[in-house]
Amino acid sequence: MDIERHVQAIQADLASAAALGDESAAVAGERLAAAVASSLQLRLLDVLTEATLSLNAQLSSGHVEVRLAGREPELVLVEDRSSRVAEPPSPGDDLSARITLRLPEALKAQIEVLAASEGVSANAWIVRALSRLLEPRVGMTRTGNRLQGFTHS
User: Fold this and answer.
1) Is pLDDT above 60 for 14?
2) Is 78:63 a contact under the CB 8 Å cutoff?
3) What is the CA radius of gyration of the chain?
4) Cα–Cα distance between 145 and 104 in angstroms, integer?
5) Distance between CA atoms of residues 133 and 110, nearest Å
6) What integer pLDDT is reported at residue 12 of this predicted model?
7) Measured between alpha carbons, how far is 36 from 29 in angstroms, rounded to an integer?
8) Do strands 72-78 and 63-69 pair parallel, antiparallel, or not at all (unpaired)?
9) CA-CA 20 to 30 A from 48: which of 24, 105, 109, 149?
10) Which residues contact 125 (CB under 8 A, 6 or more apart)?
11) Count of other CB atoms within 10 angstroms of residue 124
């Protein structure tokens, strides 16, 4: 989201309004417009934050976040992982197959943190993650400024 474009438009409006006066008013208006650039960016971020709070109050699950990459904000919908219900095993799945898996300690720690945040065991988290990777699904991927469908198999 390009808020710099909006800041520049507001600055141009302020300079145009100041130009209605004499030359010293026009110069003062241009200086004022340049001086308020940072404040305008912060105010626009405040507006985006308030909009996300309003949207979050209307969502039944998940939430919207304002994320900054440099000075550019992006609105992101974050799914609520805790509201997902763990899928029960399919009929015939006795969950008795075993595998020994050696993991780097850092990866194991990350898995344990994610599993705990979702309220499941590390084993259940790994089984669910692997199941998701193996199931065919249709989703959306971002290409440039467009969302395009894809099929994962």
Assistant:
1) yes
2) yes
3) 25
4) 37
5) 18
6) 86
7) 11
8) antiparallel
9) 149
10) 111, 114, 115, 118
11) 14
Cα 44 from Cα 3, distance rounded (Å): 7
89-126 pLDDT per residue, tens: 665 566 677 788 888 888 888 888 888 888 888 888 88
Task: Quickly count helices (H) and strands (E) in the chain.
Answer: 5, 4
Spatial separation of the C-alpha atoms in residues 14 and 5, rounded to whole Å? 14
The answer to whether the beta carbons of residues 34 and 10 sit under 8 Å apart is no
Phi, psi of 106, deg, nearest 5: -65, -40
Any idea what DSSP says for residue 83? G
C-alpha span between 71 and 45 (Å, rounded): 10
SS in 3 state form for 105-137? Answer: HHHHHHHHHHHHHHCCCHHHHHHHHHHHHHCCE
Q: Which two tokens stand for residue 36?
A: 């308020």
Count other Cβ atoms within 10 Å, centred on residue 33. Answer: 21
CB-based contact 3:41 (threshold 8 Å): yes
